[in-house]
Amino acid sequence: MDFIDNRTRAIGAMALDGLQERAKAISANTVNVLTPHYQRKEVSFEESLQNIIQREDEKEQIKLQNTAMYDKNPKSVLTGQSPAQIAFLNTAFEEGYSIDVESDTSEPLGLDGNNVNLESEMMDEAKNGMKYQVVASLLSKSYAMMNTIIKGQNQ
């Protein structure tokens, strides 16, 4: 395990970026609740983040298999890898991650053509804020643990 740059912190940072972008969209929706013909904004990033997690899990499985192969026959690891598998193992961690901001094209709620529901936006804001706090807290604890490891427990 790499304590300096592990995937948990990288995924947490990407999640915070997505949640921050969602907070901006919710704020824009709330501010424009009375703007005629305004279409509310939605932010999605969870699926691309989930895809990264699945891809990194697959990479770990391949690395474990390679370790088992190496223990039996070290040369087999070098000759047993296909170019596609090598390319897959070398994909960048962030590859495929996107934060998508899209307009909600649902029917307008009123005669002015606006489709923002203020109550729903306030609920989304609270839910998004709690998610942000949880992820930030977990990242903070991760960095605190890394700090303890680096400095040692006796100070």
What is the helix/strand order?
Answer: HEHHHEH
Given as residue ranges, the uncertain stretches (5+ residues, pLDDT < 50) are none
Biggest beta sheet attributes? 2 strands, antiparallel
Structural class: mainly alpha
Strand content: 5-15%
Radius of gyration: 22 Å
Strand order of the largest sheet: 1-2
Secondary structure: helix percent: 55-70%
- Number of structural units classed as domains: 2
User: Roughly what is the average pLDDT, rounded to an integer?
Assistant: 88
Distance between the termini: 25 Å
Helix segment count? Answer: 5
- Shape call: elongated
How many runs of DSSP E, i.e. beta strands?
A: 2
In words, what does this structure look like?
The chain is mainly alpha-helical and 155 residues long. The chain has two domains: 1-41 and 104-140; 46-98. Helix content is 64%, strand content 5%. It contains five helices and two strands. The protein has a two-stranded antiparallel ribbon. Helix 1 (7-31) packs antiparallel against helix 5. The protein is elongated, with a radius of gyration of 22 Å. The mean pLDDT is 88.
Topology:
Layout: H1 7-31, E1 41-44, H2 46-72, H3 74-79, H4 83-89, E2 100-103, H5 118-151
Helix pairs in contact: 1-5
Protein traits:
about 160 residues; mainly alpha; elongated; about 65% helix
Brief characterization of the structure:
The protein has 155 residues and is mainly α.
